Amino acid sequence: MTRQREGWLGEEYVRIYADADRKRIARLYDFETFLPDYEPWGSIGLDALCLGPDSHLYLVDWIPLEEGYRKERYAGIAEFEAGLTRLNEVTSSYLHFEKEVHCVHPLILGGDPNAPPVMLDQDTHAKACCFFNQICRTVKAKITA
Residue 123: what are its φ and ψ, rounded to 5°? Predict the structure, then answer.
């Protein structure tokens, strides 16, 4: 995708990042620390859409952003691009344009799955994800120690 696209794909809100923006987004969410060897391609609902080292596209929870929480979404880029033909795109006039879906209290840390999510701008969302991902990593290290 040469440009960012976003909108509704059925019941899911989808953001697809522009090719030129993926490295910046990887740095913003600290993929090097939390999900090395994966490239952020966008988001679908509460999940990151990531290109894996095997060229498959996976949904990975933003929190925790760990390989063990990945679910294959598309077997390859061609399948992904075919699915995007159904995207009902939105414009900047849409209330939540360029925002990410976020659980105020992450589910992995005991959040209520029925609590309504909030929409955050990308910088705020990335800071919240990095904060909670570090907490998850610290708790996991203490449990396995």
Answer: -60, -45
CATH classification (class only), 5-144: alpha beta
pLDDT digits (tens, 9 = 90+) for 80-107: 999 889 999 998 898 889 999 999 999 9
pLDDT digits (tens, 9 = 90+) for 53-87: 999 999 999 999 999 999 999 999 999 999 889 99
